[in-house]
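Human: I would love a firmer grasp of how sequence relates to backbone shape in proteins. Could you go through the record with me and say what the backbone is doing? Here is the record:
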Amino acid sequence: MAFIIFPCIFFVQILATCSLSEAKVSAVIAFGDSFVHSGNNNYIPTLAKSNFEPYGRDFPGGTPTGRFCDGRLHPDFISEGFGLKPIIPAYLDPTFSISDFATGVSFGSASTGYDNATADLLKVIPLWKEVEYYKEYQTKLRAYLGDQTANRVISDALYMINIGTNDFILNYFSLPRRKLEFTVQQYQDFLVGIAENFVKQIYSLGARKLSMISLLPLGCFPVQRAMNIGNPLNCLEERNKAALEFNGKLKATVAKLNKDLPGLKVFFADAYELLLQLITRPSEYGKYFKYSYLKFMSNTYSIQGLVETAVLCNRHTPFTCPDANKYVFWDSIHPSQRTNKIVADELLPRLRQEFL
């Protein structure tokens, strides 16, 4: 019996290896913050967690995985759109192994940023540590698949990078330290420099296909609108302006990296305008969203949901809406699963054009 089983196992692994090595996009690998965080913070001592209800209510099985959402994130949908698995696991989740990570993994950590000082605020995983985990992942992948196949997986993977929001929302606009050191334009330059060095670092490790996602209209997040004392519930234009300026600088840096690094393709995924339209004119997306946030004060999942996120958003939070699909935001910062799907559907054709 053993003689029959072992060749079968070997044959299955050969098929998996061939599939990985021949795929145009072999895996989806995510770096960044809560927009790509699938649960790594569950395994570190931090308050920046969401592995409890009502998070995960619309996730398969209704399980709160640590995603800051009612369901799946846009990298999950992107992975599925490339014919890979529909759920990208968290690297630190002990229920998964390298066989699961071979076609996709997230190193993301909620509340982190480009700036190490941002990660320090809630003691989460800084970007440099995400890179260290990625190096560890490569070692495991080579042991699992062999050097040649693993190297192909690494070079053919799509690297989704979504980070920078917390540098502005949690750090620069909330605390005095960086404001005393930088003007907002200087801080943008500081962050873009870190972003450039990060890309060069993972490029040196074999990454070749990257999608860098823009900042969203930060001033229109419910938590930011709640702080707009002078013009209640309207967007904070100062924050939106900072996001737009940062996006322009990041886009220019992406063009420079594409020119300077042979074999590298970085796609600048600009989601700012799409989210702004969803937030300010949801009725134009009537087949997606039933209610305008102006009618309900906020288009978060909670009617009073202007500040709730992480531990402040829990099963005891009142007025959680019965259908999150009608709302752009799930909590005071994070988009709903439906919004994530819209963003993924918008990005997928362009990603396929770039990388297939």
Summary: The longest helix spans residues 237-260. The radius of gyration is 20 Å.
